[in-house]
Design goal:
Elements: E1 3-6, E2 9-13, H1 24-40, E3 50-55, H2 61-74, E4 78-84, H3 87-96, E5 101-105, E6 114-120, H4 129-141, E7 155-157, H5 161-170, H6 177-183, E8 186-190, H7 196-206, E9 210-214, H8 234-242, E10 247-251, E11 258-261, H9 270-284, E12 288-292, H10 298-305, E13 310-313, H11 317-327, E14 329-334, E15 338-340, H12 350-362, H13 368-373, E16 379-386, H14 393-403, E17 408-410, E18 415-418, E19 423-428, E20 434-441, H15 444-462
Parallel strand pairs: 3-4, 3-5, 4-7, 8-9, 8-10, 12-13, 12-14
Antiparallel strand pairs: 1-2, 2-6, 5-6, 10-11, 14-15, 16-20, 17-18, 18-19, 19-20
Helix pairs in contact: 1-2, 1-4, 3-5, 6-12, 7-12, 9-10, 9-12, 14-15
Length: about 475
């Protein structure tokens, strides 16, 4: 059982001992720290602050939700309660409500025993590292000051925001629901029994798509590992073929990651979700792109095809967003299926990805499998090495940097070495003595071989 405190929020497994897991006491403590942080940084002294809250369909969601809402009330903060929602929906709601922040109760792709508090600023964007660190300090010191009975916050329920989110997506200039309707697409949706099972089918139906639902009951009982990876998606791959569907859509429990299944039942590839959507967006609005440095080189190739400039950020959504703003990127995201389209908001959003992809497909005389085959072909290998706590991971990475000093190297997030036709990215975990090793090459065999080579080199340096 685990409790992980980080600058992006707090997450852990439900139950167990206080401080070791995500218990009710820990939920209250961290919600108190976030509310206190907002109050300490507010210029408004004569009126209450306002926070938007939404949750995914996890079994523990209602419990954590009630604890967090009532904690904020005790701090004198008003709450806009979206109830069952998605991460991008809450992100959109914060500025629309002119709120001072937002909390999303979700552990994203983690299994059902996990939950988390993800924290937003008044723009509906994830907090910076410095802000997150300050909240951790407040939580550690338990420097909370709750209000008296006449100053308690109030709760306003608003169940309309998933519909509002859909409307915002459909109003985007590059989304054309009318042309999509003429194609009479048939799509299978795996909502992993969370809120994506509600909002994705509804969006598709608004765009005139015939929907075949798979695991779309939002009861929190995930029918498979909720991370949308190939090894977890046998059921939808099979159903797409059986239904003779045009493609399949898979989202994670909080609907910020998006994966497609091609019409032949094969994975389109999470890495290629962003590539395909960016190809469409850049064809209409040329510009720059950003993804994190563990994402596929294919986005760089597509960006350069459209005469744009590509840059890679450190891993983490907040880092991608920061670089997107600095480079005026038209679109960006993460290779895990996260689409960030600033035209609507700076956050990963599966709905935006679905609507843009459908519009692009409707304008192509290709099947989804043919579209995937038209892109540069890269293959990734993801590995890790577990080390003893005594081993100095930073020293190991510094040694490797010196060895490959004549190659193109980035050290903004671990060590990334770019070779002519392949790359390797090595990062240390923030929570455990692990080095993660990501490689990419033109073939799977080459990616695997490159990974094995660096696993061997790292073990030699570490003498393990």
């Amino acid at each position: 059982m685990t409790l992980i405190k980080s600058i992006s929020g707090i997450r852990g497994t439900i139950g167990g001992k206080v401080g070791d897991n995500l218990t009710p006491v820990d939920a209250v403590k961290f919600a108190s720290a976030y509310g206190t942080f907002l109050k300490n940084n507010s210029n408004i002294k004569d009126q209450k602050l306002k926070v938007v809250i939404g949750r995914d369909a996890r079994i523990s969601g209602p419990m954590i939700h009630n604890l967090v809402v009532n904690t904020l009330i005790g701090l004198g903060i008003d709450v806009i309660d979206l109830g069952l929602s998605t991460t991008p929906t809450v992100e959109i709601a914060v500025p629309l409500e002119k709120a001072d922040g937002g909390i999303i109760l979700t552990a994203s792709h983690n299994p059902k025993q996990w939950n988390a508090l993800k924290l937003l600023n008044d723009k509906g964007e994830f907090l910076s590292g410095a802000e997150g660190a300050k909240i951790l300090e407040i939580a550690e010191a338990e420097a909370f000051d709750f209000v008296d009975v006449d100053s308690l916050g109030e709760v306003t329920e608003n169940n309309a925001y998933m519909d509002i989110h859909i409307d915002e997506v459909l109003e985007l200039p590059l989304v054309d629901a009318e042309i999509v309707k003429t194609k009479k697409f048939k799509v299978v949706v795996d909502g992993v029994n969370s809120s994506g099972g509600i909002i994705i089918p509804k969006l598709l139906e608004e765009m005139g798509v015939e929907v075949v639902k798979l695991y779309c009951e939002p009861n929190g009982h995930f029918p498979h590992n909720p991370e949308p990876l190939k090894e977890h998606l046998g059921d939808i791959c099979k159903l797409v073929v059986e239904e003779k569907a045009d493609f399949g859509i898979v989202v994670d429990p909080d609907v910020d990651r998006l994966a497609f299944i091609s019409n032949d039942g094969e994975m389109f590839g999470e890495e290629y979700t962003l590539v395909a959507v960016a190809d469409y967006v850049l064809s209409k609005t040329p510009g720059n792109t950003v993804s994190n440095m563990s994402s596929s080189r294919a986005l760089r190739d597509i960006t350069e095809k459209h005469n744009g400039s590509y840059q890679a950020s450190a891993v983490g959504e907040v880092n991608v967003v920061e670089l997107m703003k600095a480079t005026n990127a038209i679109i960006g995201g993460e290779g895990n299926g996260g689409i960030i389209y600033p035209e609507i908001h700076y956050g990963r959003d599966a709905l935006v990805g679905v609507a843009l992809f459908l519009t692009y497909l409707a304008n192509q005389d290709k099947t989804v499998a043919e579209l995937r085959a038209s892109y540069p072909q890269y293959y990734m290998s993801k590995n890790k090495i577990e080390l003893t706590p005594q081993i100095n991971v930073d020293a190991i990475l510094e040694s490797l940097t010196a060895t490959y000093k004549n190659e193109q190297i980035s050290t903004i997030d671990g060590v990334k070495i770019d070779f002519a036709t392949e790359w390797v990215h090595l990062r240390k975990s923030n929570t455990e003595p692990i080095i993660r090793i990501y490689t990419e090459a033109p073939t799977q065999a080459e990616a695997d071989t490159l990974a094995e080579r660096f696993v061997t080199e790292l073990k030699q340096i570490a003498s393990i």
